[in-house]
Structure prediction request, 268 residues.
Amino acid sequence: MKRRAHRTLSTPPSGGPFPPTGWAGAPIGSAVRAAWSGARTLEAVIESGSSTSEQRSRGGGAAALSEWIAAWQPEDPAVQSARQRAAEVGVSAVDVPTGGVLRLLAAATGAKAVVELGTGAGVSSLCLLRGMRSDGILTTVDSEPEHQRMAKASLQEAAVPSGRARLIGGRALDVLPRLSDRAYDLVFCDANRSENLDYLDAALRLLRPGGTVVFAGALAGGKVAESSARDQDVLALRELAKVVRDEPRLASAAVPVGQGLLAACLVD
Ligand SMILES: C[S@@+](CC[C@H](N)C(=O)[O-])C[C@H]1O[C@@H](n2cnc3c(N)ncnc32)[C@H](O)[C@@H]1O
Prediction:
């Protein structure tokens, strides 16, 4: 395969074409990538020894691995700005590795139509859009007008054409009945955790055969596996995992990335 020559960029790709070229694995120099992202280079992460066996045994392995992934595949400046907005309004956005998995799932399903519940400031929206087909449309729902304003700014900064994202203000359970049956390739649920079982019901109706539903934070960062964790949220997540696993129309997997993803493909 012919490799493209390394490029040198004096300005970040923000505001350029969407999706931007030269990020997340595109063949540009690691120093340039680090300058864009503000992240440490892959070499610096490894050299600092942040993933020593001593750290791993103290439970620091996951954080070190996350940092390695962020250096390996840095996010472009528009996604970083979206993260900053999320932090400003106190929204917890998906982490870098989880964003990568969302992008992968959108690409692997050839997603043209995606529903996102819980837009936040637009971090996961951008990750999904990066993976979707270039003519795909993201329908994203959030009940907080302030978060929607942030998300709109994030999409604008990333130069996402207005026709590619439908931002709907409202509560997920009020909006979902208005969406068409079997019309979507991917449903990403990251809104109100206590409503996850209702989102699952809706996803089973909205997805086309072969489509995928994904729940964010579904492993509560590992707490679902701790016998001492018995709070309502964890109990609800264990129940969700059981229902998804036992649904005969779904082929499911729990993915221990970030706070944990639960993903399931509609096989029937
Ligand atoms: C964890 S944040 C989403 C973060 C976003 N997915 C990301 O990774 O960038 C959850 C969002 O869901 C919204 N939300 C909470 N309950 C909701 C509901 N019932 N319907 C719609 N949105 C809701 C909140 O306003 C918040 O913006």
About this structure: DSSP finds eleven helices and seven strands in the chain. The CA atoms of residues 87 and 246 lie 37 Å apart. Residues 232-246 form the longest helix (15 residues). The pocket of S-adenosylmethionine is lined by residues 86, 91-94, 117-120, 123-124, 141-144, 147, 171-172, 190-192, 195 (CB under 6 Å).
